[in-house]
Amino acid sequence: MAKQQSGTGWSLNTSTSRATTTSNTSARPEEQRIQLAIEKRKKGKVVTLLRNLTLSDADVKDLARKLKNACGTGGTSRSGEIELQGDCRDRASTFLTQNGYGLK
């Protein structure tokens, strides 16, 4: 919330709101350079992360659904990243290369 400079009192200035990090346009799979990473969470849980996605929100959700089916695991898509439960780096990299995505 920003303080209003003219007049009296406070007002909500919506023009200073944060911009979204994901775009509405998607790059072709050949132009993607997806980074596969693994992260340990609390209680020893392992999560596979897919980062550097330049896809629209709808395409990220669609790719996450396809990856979850290919890997046979659960997961989610959050803020332009895909999280898969467990260590799925091998199966995810195989699926992505078969579908034309580039990996780092």
Please provide a written account of the structure:
The protein has 104 residues and is of the alpha+beta class. The protein has a single domain (26-103), classed as Translation Initiation Factor Eif1, CATH 3.30.780.10. It has two helices and five strands. The protein has a five-stranded mixed β-sheet, with helices on one face. A hairpin with a 5-residue loop joins strand 1 (33-40) and strand 2 (46-51). The longest helix has 15 residues, at 57-71. The protein is globular. Mean pLDDT is 82; it is low at 16-22.
Spatial arrangement of strands, main beta sheet:
3-4-2-1-5
- Tell me the Rg in angstroms: 18 Å
Please work out how many helical segments DSSP would assign.
2
Rounded to the nearest angstrom, the distance between the terminal CA atoms is 39 Å
Helix vs. strand class: alpha+beta
CATH topology title = Translation Initiation Factor Eif1
**What's the story with the biggest beta sheet?**
5 strands, mixed
Uncertain spans, ≥5 residues at pLDDT below 50? Answer: 16-22
Order of helices and strands: EEHEEHE
Portion of residues in beta strands equals 15-25%
- CATH C-level class is Alpha Beta
Percent of residues in helices: 10-25%
